[in-house]
Amino acid sequence: MVPRSVESLTPAWPSLPPLAHAFAAQLLAWLLTACVQILLGGAAGWYWTVGQGVLAALVGRMFGLPWWWAPINAVFAPAVIEAQVVDLDSWWYLGAFVVLLTVYWTTFRTRVPLYLSSAEACDRLATLLPAEREFRFLDIGCGVGTVLANLAPRFAAGRFLGLEIAPLPFLVSWLRGRWSQRFETRRVDFWEENLSAYDVVYAFLSPVPMSELWQKAKREMRAGSVFVSNTFRVDGEAPDSVIPLGGGRRSLYVWRF
Fold first, then answer.
1. Does residue 124 sit in the same domain as residue 224?
2. Which of 78, 88, 222, 241 would bridge 92 by S-S if both were Cys, CB 3.0 to 4.6 A apart?
3. 172-191: per-residue pLDDT in tens?
């Protein structure tokens, strides 16, 4: 008998925004912790707050939140308590919110966090690029321009473009491109970009948009072009090749048109 996948064992929770699931996880963790504390008659202490954070992280995962929500849920309650003890000025909260907003921007809607490609991923990606002829390379959701800054100096005949919608990562990538003058970064939603102009399209996003992005790639990418996804596969679409990364913990999935 073939064992069911982890995904098939995950409860089918209602399709709600991640923030709603995170809030529900915090609320449930608080209720459970409060009940246990009352039953045991324990006095308030830091260990209860830490326990509530750990429980919120576990409940969030049970609700289907991505792994990167776990540390956020875990530190939320301790951070709130610590902030009350330290009695920070309200401007600190506003500043922290603005910084997070410039980094994550529409993550709550797109469910695409900031992932940074490793140096190994860049090296493996370089093996897929033409060494002699001209080509155009697009990095969808390029973040701070890690891939562009790594690859552009290696390929004199290549034209490299990155698209990033979050303000702070875009600014970092744009400045790196301006200083090197080897690649360009635009603050554009990648759904608005026509993929037919590119020979290689690279994406390191999340599982959420992959099916829709694949449909867009099939409609727009021309014969002979290559689509590469870091870590996240397209359900029901077998890649033409798989390039393991980091001992197999991650991979580059390659589709050729």
1. yes
2. 88
3. 899 998 888 789 999 988 88
Q: Could you state, in chain order, the average pLDDT of each consecutive group of 10 residues for the chain (257 residues)?
A: 37 55 80 80 68 83 73 76 62 54 50 72 93 92 91 93 88 88 88 94 88 94 95 90 82 94
d(CA 155, CA 132): 9
Q: Is 242 helix (H, G, I), strand (E, B) or coil?
A: strand
Please enumerate in sequence order all residues whose Cβ is within 8 A of that of 21, keeping only pairs 6 or more positions apart, or say none: 13, 60, 63, 64, 65
In angstroms, the CA 161 to CA 183 distance is 6
Q: 202 near 243, Cβ under 8 Å?
A: no
Distance in angstroms (rounded) separating the CA atoms of residues 254 and 252: 6
Q: What's CA 4's distance to the chain center, in Å?
A: 26
Residue 7's pLDDT is 37
**Based on the domain organization, do 144 and 203 belong to the same domain?**
yes
CA distances from 124 to 137, 227, 243 (A): 15, 14, 7
Alpha helices in 105-153, H assignment, sequence order: 107-110, 119-126, 146-151
Considering the domain architecture, whether residues 161 and 224 belong to the same structural domain is answered as yes
Rounded CA-CA distance 111/129 in Å is 29
For 182-225, give the DSSP string: SEEEE---GGGS-GGG-SEEEE---STTHHHHHHHHHHHPPTT-
Could you tell me if residue 100 is inside a domain? no
* Residue 237: Cβ-neighbour burial (10 angstroms; 0-12, 13-18, 19+): middle
Contact 181, 156 (CB under 8 A): no
| Domain assignment of residue 14, given as a range | 6-87
Which residue's structure tokens are 């694949």?
A: 214
